[in-house]
Amino acid sequence: MEVIPGVSGGTIALILGVYDTLIDGAGHLARGVVRLISDGLRGRGTSRAVEHFRSVRWVVVIPIGVGMLAAVVIGARFVAPLVEEHPVETKALFAGLIAASLIVPIRMVGGRWRVHEVAVVLAAAALTFFLTGLPPAGDANPPLWVVAIAAAFAVCALVLPGVSGSYLLLTVGMYAPTLAAVNDRNLAYVAVFALGAIVGLGLFVSGLQWLLSRHRRITLIVVTGLMLGSLRSMWPWQSEENALLPAGPEALTAVTLFAVGVLAVLVLLIVEAILVRRHVLSEDTVSDPTPHPVDPER
């Protein structure tokens, strides 16, 4: 979904119930790589790196990683043109998905919300509303060092619900060049972009993992606000400068597709609840930056 402006990969992870697992695994993977390099250069061995690698739930992280790569290739080829050709219909559907998925972080927060927590949600929503209303920059042919920096920032949105990495690329004029590089198999561009993304993800996810571990409630409250504010980018009628326009003649179709998106998420949440109740699916893990004790029979 990260190839679609306005749709956050973190939001999709929340909908699928793997958000904490994704953050936890990415954090340990990033720390493991850092330990492997730093301890290797100092001659301290690989034991600390191995502890972090063993803490990654590979059975979840590997399928997610493979799926993400496949989604980028498929999305660049098929989904992105669909969004361009049918913007009203696709945005309405995605808006329904995001609106219903607000249930997920709200449920994860739990308990009774206090007044200052509601204020935090509204502030985060207002910030996202403003950012998603910024007009896109003109398409550019950026140098590779700019590609790396843009990728480092854009990939942060991969794990931050409500913030779309592809939308960030769009606002700095690098969305079209990046899609073209994927479609044209521009290996140099793709390799530099991937390197920048890995560095950015490693730095950002560690901080987010720490927040989820130490300040979980307020972090999820901010996430809820970001998702709420991101609904602005999914309003089906917008100008090329991202200004909001009145509803057009496709209003009935848009409302129908919005309802389909809401229903799809609700069905998914019901199925998840049934699987958890029957112990077919376990509750999601809580992100923790310290290595987990490893069962030798795992």
Automatic annotation (TrEMBL):
Highest taxon listed in the record's lineage: Bacteria
Keywords, alphabetical: Membrane, Transmembrane, Transmembrane helix
Pfam families registered for this protein in UniProt: VCA0040-like
Transmembrane parts of this sequence: 58-80, 92-110, 117-137, 143-160, 189-211, 255-276
InterPro entries associated with the record: VCA0040-like (IPR007163)
Protein name: Membrane protein
Organism expressing this protein natively: Antiquaquibacter oligotrophicus
Lineage, opening ranks: Bacteria, Bacillati, Actinomycetota, Actinomycetes, Micrococcales
